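During the practical work, I selected for study one protein's amino acid sequence and its backbone structure tokens, as given directly below:
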Amino acid sequence: MTSSSMADTRPVDVTSWIGGYPFREVPHPDPEILVRVLDREGFAAAWVGHLPGAFYRDPVPSNRALYTAVAPFAGVLLPAPIVRPDWPGWTEMLRDAVNAGAPAVRAYPAQWGLGPGHPAMAELAFACGEAGVALHVTVRFEDLRQRHLMDGAGDVPAATLRALARLAGSHCHLVVAGAGRELIEETHWGLTPPEQQRVFYDFGWVWGPPEDHFAHLIATIGAERLAWSSWWPLRLTQQSRALVDLLPPYTPSPRAEPNLADGRSIFGAARCAAKSRPAAEHRAGTTSATNR
């Protein structure tokens, strides 16, 4: 994070993209438009991915395009490049991300066919924990009812998310994007308290009134586990703010907002965890943890 984004008290969006989407037209997927959208919706900055790259076999061209596109908007558009751990040279992808100042890297296990027991995802989680960057996992891009017939990847299951969070000795901070209440609860309540503290959920897909799933999650798992997002350009950017504005009064002060997470706080936690990790910490239990 830059000093300017750190000084801005507005939240940092953890889920947005630039670039086109292969299954339908999306409005204005350009970095200069995203900058204006973030300012309009009250975000200081955003973790930005390259949307077409989620569907590439080789992430390198996607990451190259992302770095080039966000360079003129440093401090506002923060690159969150793809690291595919079953692909040759993935450690170099991660190293390039760290050198570029990325607060997080993105993984798309459903698109890559990597299930909950795949050792490559475990290796990526360990590496992210050591590097002090968050691991951002997108559960889905669209609701099943919207999905194109050619989009057959499916959703990331709770088993995959729990496997990443349960890795023995891992300090990886996981950001889950695109999960509803059911998946969040299935993941969260299947973890130990220390494991729960390393997982954050982008709440852009959570229902508000009249079901009040968002208020229920705040009351049960805690606001600090839920992270701000815009989901540009795939969803309405007003969703997160609307959910907060429609919360029932649950504190003595109706104007008080819950202590929600954002990209700034998550990146800070990931950096602190990496700095506190012993240099030669043993990676015991990787195989058994991923199969739990």
Observations:
- Confidence is low (pLDDT under 50) at residues 282-292.
- The domain at 3-290 is CATH 3.20.20.140 (TIM Barrel).
- The longest strand covers residues 12-18.
